[in-house]
Amino acid sequence: MARRKLIAGNWKMNMTREAAVALIKELIPLVQTEESDVALCVPAIDIIPCVDAVQNTNIKIGAQNMYFEEKGAFTGEIAPDMLTSTGVEYVILGHSERRGYFAETDETVNKKVLKAFEHGLTPIICCGESLEQRQQGITLDLIRMQIKIAFGSVDAENAKKAVVAYEPIWAIGTGVTASTEQAQEVCKGIRDCLAELYGSEVAEEIRILYGGSVSASNAADLFAQSDIDGGLVGGASLKADFGKIVNYK
Ligand code: 13P
After folding, report:
1. What pLDDT score was predicted for residue 2?
2. Across the chain, which distance is largest between two alpha carbons, in Å?
């Protein structure tokens, strides 16, 4: 089965409301394609104007985080139904910046993944190793653990709909991209791990993205790898270059 590519932007903590809408308008004509799905994961406060701005286009809007409780005394957090009520389809979960700066753990990522599925949201589940971990030779062990915990109690029907993003921490925002071989090796390792959990038929359906200094010049090589089904793009999704990445062929 040919998996449909997904090219997703992660704007991180950038773009005021006005700037967000202006950038969406600039990107709409540049990211038109029949071949891939296109999403932009924007800051929570920009979601509503961005969902409005992408009406009748091929762009879907995603969130960058979500809490795992339904509602209540969780100051500053965003509940799943707050996202779905805006028309959001995707939510990034377990980004390394959230793990590193905001103490997210594999266990909280798993709770969020389960909650996202309960609400019909598509989680983009992030995993990735630090440079030190890569140098220690534990990349695949670590990634397999992140994946197994993130997918804990997720059934096969939901697992099929998940998106995984492999983002080596040393490649994020550094301009140093993983080589196509390194990226393919880990993405294949992730698919093998998912096949152990769910069988190869399910694993073949799950989209696995690469993220970390994806640019207009390296996207085509990365996305041509057999286990890489698109990208999660940070810095380059904040400019017109994102259009070139979407139309990478
Ligand atoms: P950069 O593309 O800026 O390296 O960021 C990658 C990333 O973290 C996307 O989630």
Report:
1. 83
2. 48
